[in-house]
Amino acid sequence: MSHAHHLLKLLLLLLAVLAGSQPHGAVAAKFEVKDVTNKTCTIVELLMNFSIKYETVEEKEKLVFFPIPEDAVVSGNSTCGKGSSESSLLVVTFGTGHSVSFSFSRNSSVYYAEKLGVAYNLGDKHIFPDARRNDVSFSSESTGINAQVNTTYVCMTAQEIQMANATVVISAARIEAYVPGSDYSKEETVCEADKTTSTTTVPTTVTPTQPPTPKDPVSIKYNVTSSNGTCLLAQMGLQLNLTYITKYNKTGVEIINIDSNATASGFCESTSVGLSLKSERTSLWLFFSMNETSKKSYLSGVSVHINPFPEAQGGALNVTNTSLNYLQATLGKSFKCSSKQILQVSPVFALDVFKAQVQAFTVQNGKFGEAEECLLDQNNMLIPIIVGAALAGLVLIVLIAYLIGRKRSHAGYQTI
After folding, report:
1. Phi and psi (nearest 5°) for 179?
2. 149 class by beta-carbon count within 10 Å (0-12 exposed, 13-18 middle, 19+ buried)
3. Burial environment of residue 416 by CB neighbours within 10 A (0 to 12, 13 to 18, 19 or more)
4. Which residue in 31, 35, 228, 360 is deepest, having the highest Cβ count within 10 Å?
5. Measured at the alpha carbon of residue 186, what is the angle toward residues 181 and 189, in degrees to the nearest 5?
């Protein structure tokens, strides 16, 4: 598909970023640039995730995704500029030779985050363990971020910025350049995405009520296809089960069914396959990987983003895990499970899967291959067999005891 590479970078990036989220929601990183008098001129607070595509020593393309770490720091190369009309720069460094930068400019009424730049060191074996090259690569792209002067730019909705071999996802953003005071301005410029998804509902009680548990989700058929054919075929019902901390510091529970209104898309790569399901409020990503040694495919990553989430702290909720091993099947065969499965993604998020049949990578003629039954179904089939065998054994024992008793009874009578 024409947008497969871009979508892959986006999805994996979001996945990675969310992976760095805290148990009850991600914590935004905050960076400040100060001038020579120690006055703050730029404040950037956001969640940021990266997806990098690189070439391995085996000359294969590979994607890696990661969030900006908590120990990232503002570089000394950051500058406020010499005047109110001059460009300012925020540079944040982290890890082994990685950095991200925002360049800002302004006119009399509006300031702009003109460019976002990402520098990544392919020599960092922690992130790029099998990279063919060891140099530092740089990509940049315009952001589309702008706000009225003396206001704070606010955008909770995730924004994807795609570059040549990198994708950056920004969410939960609060940004202000050319700050007039010592902190954010009270007035805000809200991004268009937040305006279209915001809610005006105001809770009337301090303790929010929990929504009723929805019925089991409807089983829906999904397929992801590229120019080389179908790389993912799935029939399943999906339910999001989240636990979160409310803005009232209480524990809340949210259960959401993925229905047929969700927009499905995806990507096909040689060793990774992805399915994206997006609705007005939720974004769900499922990532499948291949074990070339065992010739198995499996669900390796899940990422969920719920926005807006007015009851949760921060107004949005992000959870990701990219080290899973669910829905495993032999290549060329399909994973099948009629029983409900609870896939624990994190301590606060489970993906409940109903009546599933899934096949990744090798799908012939758009049809499922031979099914490999899940352990739950095997156990469910085994239990009636065991019970039936036990009952049959009991009947046999009773019958034998009856026959023995009957024989002894006849032996007690003498013929006259």
Report:
1. -65, 125
2. middle
3. exposed
4. 360
5. 110
Backbone φ/ψ region at 51: left (φ over 0), alpha (ψ -120 to 50), beta:
beta
pLDDT of 200 > 80? The answer is no
DSSP, collapsed to helix, strand or coil, labels residue 375 as helix
What strands, in cross-sheet order, belong to the sheet with 136-148? 73-74, 88-94, 98-106, 110-121, 136-148
Q: Where are the beta strands (DSSP E) in 82-219?
A: 88-94, 98-106, 110-121, 136-148, 152-155, 159-162, 166-177, 188-190
Q: In DSSP terms, which residues pair with 155 in a beta bridge?
A: 173
Structure tokens at 352: 């409940």
pLDDT tens per residue across span 103-154: 999 888 999 998 999 999 999 988 888 899 999 988 888 888 999 999 999 9
- Which residue type does 73 have? V
Angle at 11 between CA 9 and CA 17, to 5 degrees: 95
| b (16+ CB within 10 A) / e for 260-296 | eebebbbbbbeebbbbbbeeeebbbbbbbbbeeeeeb
User: Which DSSP helix (H) or strand (E) runs through 360?
Assistant: strand 349-360
Which of 6, 311, 321, 306 shows the shortest CA–CA distance to 157? 306
* Residue 60 Ramachandran class (φ > 0 left, ψ -120 to 50 alpha, else beta): beta
For the segment 239-265, the average pLDDT, to the nearest whole number, is 85
